[in-house]
Amino acid sequence: MKVSVIGAGSWGTALAQLLAENGHNIGLWARKPEVIASINQEHKNPRYLSDIELSENIVATISHKDTLKNAVAVVVVTPSNLLRGVARALAPIIDDDLPIIICSKGVEEGSGLLPTEIFESELGNMDRLAVLSGPNHAEEVIKQVPSATVIASTSSATAEFFQDLFASETFRTYISNDVRGVELCAASKNVMAIAVGLAYGLGFGDNTAALLMTRGLAEMGRLVAACGGQSLTCMGLAGTGDLIATCTSEHSRNRRFGKMLAEGSQIEDFTEKTHMVAEGALACKTLKTLADNYDVELPITNLVRSIVWEGVDIDEAAASLASRPLTTEFWGIS
Questions:
Q1: Diameter over CA atoms, the chain
Q2: Would the pTM count as exceeding 0.90?
Q3: In terms of Cα–Cα distance, which of 182, 173, 124 is closest to 153?
Q4: Is 31 helix (H, G, I), strand (E, B) or coil?
């Protein structure tokens, strides 16, 4: 089948390769002409995962129309802050029932909408939408290191379609109907990874990392429950699984960003050095909209936001978190 992948970053490149190795023809949309030329002529992405030889079944283009021609599905892998623009670009080109799976993680600034809600607002038909999330570092998936992910949709048919599309011997796919839960876990875990990176950058140890991960999971659970998701989702691949991978791995861009912050860098330094977006840096700001709307307390998220966007001193922010009142371990989750 022909599958269109929108976005040629590290995750888009890895998923395009995975789908190509599953026997599909891939139209890969990229915005830089030099990337397109390299993928089509040298079968390498010069900016991301450049040590991997890509399948000849992958054809890159700068045209959304060409990428989507004859496609039976669309895989969206762009930074979360670009999702509405992508949806608007696709709207005049695609059919009303073309399956779309979103692999971006975040919350829209201002509206508080999740990725599938953004696409529904621009394209309609929520049932043809799905979201993919899990402990999936692109650097390992593209090398066929055994991995797993969860695919969530309000439609079981859509979820099962994408489950079969992505499944391989080394990439296990599970399905869920908890779209909101999966998307909220995906956004929240990136923030926790920044906090863990900050802790390591300040010279703290594994105990502190475990503290932040565990309390971060509780924070994630409160938010998911308040927003109508299923608390159990937080214990699955999109929650605990992705939290572990993102907070502990050297591949994690958000963990790396947190460590760089502790060492004196700024968000612009990270983007310039890695050519990547630290999604958690956006999420710590945009999750506040949901926290305010649903009256949910997110102390770790607030700490990260105060450091990244409000100029609060890192040591001061850490001290304020440590001085919070003691309470029961599980609260605010039903």
A1: 60
A2: yes
A3: 182
A4: coil
Q: What's the mean pLDDT in 234-253?
A: 94
Concerning whether 189 is annotated as a catalytic residue, the answer is yes
Give pLDDT, residue 332: 64
What Rg value do the Cα atoms of the chain yield, rounded? 19
Query: Which one from 189, 259, 285, 288 is the annotated catalytic residue?
Result: 189
Structure tokens at 181: 């839960």
Tokens of 221: 């659970």
Which residue has tokens 């390299």? 38
Non-local (6+) Cβ contacts of 280 within 8 A are 190, 191, 192, 193, 194, 254, 257, 258, 304
The number of beta carbons lying within 10 Å of the beta carbon of residue 268 is 8
Dump pLDDT digits (tens) for 263-309: 887 777 777 777 666 788 899 999 999 999 999 999 999 999 999 99
Chain centroid offset of residue 287 CA: 14
Helices assigned H by DSSP within the chain: 10-21, 33-41, 64-68, 83-90, 115-123, 138-141, 156-166, 179-201, 206-226, 242-248, 253-262, 267-274, 279-294, 299-308, 314-322
Complete DSSP assignment for 54-97: PPTTEEEES-HHHHHTT-SEEEE-S-GGGHHHHHHHHTTTS-TT
